[in-house]
Write a structure and sequence with these properties.
By secondary structure, the protein is α/β, with parallel strands linked by helices. It is 60% helix and 9% strand. It contains 24 helices and twelve strands. The longest helix is centred in the middle third of the chain and has 54 residues. It binds adenosine-5'-diphosphate.
Length: 644
């Protein structure tokens, strides 16, 4: 999907207020102990790392100098410090070693703790996003948001991890270093501190300029990467067409171009990025030079111009060392800012997903569907597929928070909703078989989905045993309505698992019986590991017909009171279909069944055939009646059997 195309997510994303605050509220608070330990350990590590140059300065003055200068450290009363030179020497040595050790130990602690914290949040975000996503209404998935959801689960979750780990910890280091160094320098010698810190605004300005110029290049790189990914994805999906039309070279060329685009945009970023660090070093060198010249001359001339207070060699050396300590933390500023911006965007994407309202869910006073008889009634049903974008917009106008609006009733998408089902009434008595027939796009599958309440109606009602499906507990409705759709999907796992899907506690014998009933046992037994053969993406590839038979076995095992077979045998050859048909006849005999079948021979025995055109019922009746009446059905029948 092109980067600038609006997705259904965007509306929800734009509403997220202060996404990073929400991130801490929803995920940080429950781990706040880790966060606090991480931040404190970081603080200690950074503070300790500032100690050695200060101690070195003190030691140079008191121990190695020729004059009798007292041993002093900023903020520490002299009475607490040793008086003898040898003691002062060992004391300094121990202090410096201790500082390095403390830095090392606490760096390790904050590294591990921060990672633990950040990866823990990432894990929760990943799992929660999936859990949220899978509960969203079927309508959400009509907009093919798979790519978006995938990128939330992978990219966005890891952006948040980087932010909580790197950016947060480097941010703390930056603050401690800049303020810590400034404080120490001012305590030691305010005048020289001003001179040394003159370089700091320059470094900040340089960093700010750098971020300004690199930002558009980052954006270019991101869109180049997005284009590249789209090309790759498209190229792989269309590989068959590319081969069939001998267009491999054309396709490779397109990918090569996109890849070159990525390469070039990365080079543009790197050209600048490699310029920044040396630039910072140069500015630090400038600070060093100024401090060295001013401080050195001050020492040499025993004060000059405004610099008349006392300056010792030790303090001078501390200053010179400190000028080098700004570079590393400041060099991280651009990546901190980058990570914070990425994290803001990623957090709004994550919370944007969380805030999409789920409309198809249990009503507050929903009742379970217990041992249904299987009476089904569609009464004056009208339905239009909901449009996520339009809905989000509608909520905007009413200024309603989407999260607060969990109502189960679906609003129509506009004044002129595009009805795909219009005023349809169908009634099935318990045990009856009703067939929906009609041309492609007439609305047959849609009617099936409405019985499962995959979507909510705009008008009318669908009732099971007299209760509106909107008043039933969803899980119980779906347990009692078995659904075999056109697309017989297999999950990654064994064939046994796939048949057991939804009834995970079924025994192997039950699974085998169900497979027999679906005419699937034979081919399954011939597979290398029988029922334990892996199928799905990494397993054995099965034909459409084989997959359909597994789907039928699944519904046999489910043993529901109501069956919905939407082109359940369309991919099966006529021979197999006949064999399945007898099992299906047994299966549907005492259950209410809705069938959609392209081959009309399979619906001949139905109690009632409902002929649909453009979402409306145009004819209904039993097979013989309809053939005799010479209407639309007899036309279809004639076309298929060649009898008219
Ligand atoms: P049939 O099963 O009779 O071929 P469908 O029920 O699949 O017909 O489709 C009826 C109409 O609804 C068609 O115009 C189709 O384009 C539209 N439609 C089907 N599925 C969706 C969907 N998920 N989102 C939007 N429109 C859809």
């Amino acid at each position: 999907m092109a980067a600038d195309e609006e997705t259904p997510f965007d509306r929800y994303r734009q509403r997220i207020d202060r996404p990073l605050v929400r991130l801490f509220r929803e995920y940080g608070l429950e781990r706040k102990r880790w966060l606090i330990v991480g931040l404190l350990a970081n603080l200690v590590a950074q503070a300790a790392s500032l100690l050695p140059p200060v101690v070195l300065g003190a030691a140079i003055d008191a121990v190695f100098g020729e004059s009798d200068t007292a041993y002093q450290l900023p903020l520490v009363p002299t009475s607490l410090l040793p008086q003898q030179e040898v003691e002062q020497f060992w004391f300094s040595a121990i202090l410096i070693a201790g500082a390095f050790l403390t830095t090392a130990v606490f760096t390790w602690i904050y590294g591990v703790v921060a990672n633990f914290f950040a990866h823990g949040v990432m894990h929760n975000v990943r799992s929660d996003s999936f859990e949220k996503m899978i509960r969203l209404d079927a309508a959400f998935f009509d907009d093919k948001q798979t790519g978006e959801v995938m990128s939330i689960l992978s990219n966005d979750a890891s952006n948040l991890e980087l932010f909580l780990d790197d950016a947060l910890m480097n941010g703390v280091r930056l603050v401690v270093m800049v303020f810590g160094i400034a404080a120490i320098l001012f305590l030691l010698n305010p005048q020289l501190a001003v001179v040394t810190l003159l370089g700091l605004p320059l470094m900040v300005a340089f960093t700010w300029w750098f971020m300004r110029v690199i930002e558009p290049r980052y954006e270019d790189r991101q869109s180049a990467v997005a284009t590249f990914n789209t090309r790759i994805e498209n190229g792989i999906s269309g590989v068959e067409l590319a081969k069939a039309t001998s267009s491999e070279e054309y396709e490779s060329g397109r990918v090569r171009d996109a890849s070159r685009g990525v390469f070039e945009s990365i080079m543009e970023v790197l050209k600048l990025a490699y310029f920044y660090r040396p630039g910072m070093e140069l500015l630090a060198g400038l600070s060093f030079a100024i401090t060295f010249v001013v401080g050195g001359y001050w020492l040499l001339a025993d004060g000059f111009g405004p610099f008349t207070s006392e300056l010792s060699v030790g303090v001078f050396i501390t200053f010179v060392f400190m000028t080098q300590r700004f570079v590393s933390p400041l060099a991280e500023v651009s990546s901190i800012v980058d990570q914070v911006q990425n994290a803001r965007v990623s957090a709004s994407r994550v919370f944007g997903l969380y805030d999409i309202p789920v409309r198809i869910e249990d009503a507050e006073d929903a009742v379970p569907l217990d041992n249904p008889e299987g009476h089904v009634e569609y009464e004056d049903v009208s339905f239009a597929y909901p449009d996520f974008l339009a809905r989000a917009e509608g909520e905007d106008e009413r200024g309603k928070s989407p999260a607060a609006d969990g109502g189960a009733v679906l609003e129509s998408t506009g004044d002129e909703a595009e009805y795909v089902i219009e005023d349809v009434s169908v009634e099935a008595q318990p045990g009856e078989t009703v067939a929906f027939v009609g041309s492609t796009g007439a609305g047959k599958s849609t009617l099936c989905r409405l019985l499962l309440r995959l979507y909510d109606l705009n008008e009318g009602a669908v009732r099971v045993d007299g209760t509106d499906v909107r008043d039933l507990e969803l899980a119980s409705l779906r347990t009692h309505v078995g659904y075999v759709s056109q697309d017989a999907f297999l999950f990654d796992g064994t064939i046994g698992d796939n048949i057991r899907y939804g009834r995970f506690d079924a025994s192997m014998d039950d699974v085998r019986d169900a497979a027999r009933a679906a005419e699937a046992h034979e081919f399954i037994s011939e597979l290398p590991d029988g029922y334990d053969t892996r199928v799905g993406e990494r397993g054995v590839k099965l034909s459409g017909g084989q997959r359909q038979r597994i789907a039928i076995a699944r519904v046999v095992l489910q043993d529901p009171a109501i069956l919905v077979l939407d082109e359940a045998t369309s991919d099966v050859d006529t021979d197999t279909e006949q064999r399945i048909q007898s099992s299906l006849d047994a299966l549907t005999e005492d259950r209410t069944t809705f069938v959609v079948a392209h081959r009309l021979s399979t619906v001949v025995g139905a109690d009632q055939i409902v002929v649909l055109e453009d979402g409306q019922v145009v004819e209904r009746g039993a097979h013989e009646e309809l053939v005799d009446s010479g209407g639309r059905y007899s036309e279809l029948w004639g076309a298929q059997t060649g009898s008219v």
